[in-house]
Write the C-alpha cells for this entry.
Amino acid sequence: MRIPTGTIVAVCVLPAVLLVAGCAGSGVKQTRLGELVYLQATTDRGPGPFTASTAAVVPGSTPSRGTAVVPGSTPPRGTAAVSAAELAAPLRATRTLSGATPGLYRGTPRVAACDTERHIGYLAADPAKADAFARVAGVTRPGLPAYLRALTPVVLGTDTRVTSHSYRSRRADGYQAVLQAGTAVLVDDRGVPRVRCACGNPLGPPAPTRGGAGARGTPWAGYRPNKVVVVAPAPHAVASLTLVDEGRRTWTERRVGQDVRRDRVVSPPAPARTSPPPSSPAGSSPPLSS
C-alpha cells in the first residue's frame, strides 16, 4: 500500500501491552519495569554492541534538536541547557506517532543511512551473535539476510524511545533507551525501528513503565523528556515511507527495503487539520443553490 504524501497519519495511542509485543523471545532478557532509560547520542554505541558501526555520514543526518520536522511545523532555532531537574524528570510516552507518519524520519534521496550488506556480513562472521540477533528479530539465522534486506534505512527525526539489546555471554539483554534525533536506523514495513546502525543492535518497541522512568546518560542540547516520541506500528504494512531532508527542505518517497535507488522527490504533505470542518446545526438542511 502506498502512503499518500498529501495526508498525515493521525497520532495514535497504543495500549501498553502492544508496546512490548514482539520484544521477548527465547534467550532474550527483558528489562524490568522501573529501571532507568539510557540516553544514547547519535554516535554513542552503547553497551555490548553487536557489530561495528554500519551507519553512513549522509547529508541531512546532522543531529537535530530533538524535534521532528512535520508538515506545518517549524524547527526551533535555539535551545537552552538541559537542567538536572529535566534530566531526572520521569519519562512518559507523551507522544505516540504512527510509523507511517510523513516527516517522522529523515533521509537524502538515493543515499542510504546504513550499509545493510556490511551488517549482514558482520553477523555471518559470528554465528553466536547471529543467533542472538535472530531470536530478538523472531527469525531463524538463515533467514537473517532476507529479514535485514527488507528493512529500510532512515534517520530518526526526533528523540525516540525504544527497547535496545546489548550482546553479552552469547545472548541479547534488553534495556530501555532514548535514541537521539539524527540516529541512523533500519525500520520495518510498519515504520518501527528494528536495528540501530551505530552498533548493530536489534531494536523493539519500548516497554511500559509505571509512573515513568528516570534517565541516565549525557543529555544532548535540546533533550526534553516530554518531547520524546514512541513509534507505533502503522495499521497496515506500507509500500513506502515519506522522508524529509531538513537541510534541503525536500521530501522523498522511499520504497520499503534497502534499495534507495528508487527514491522519488515528492511535494510536501499538506498540513494536518487541527479542527473538524464546520457542520450544519442538527435538523437543518444545507442551503439550496440558486
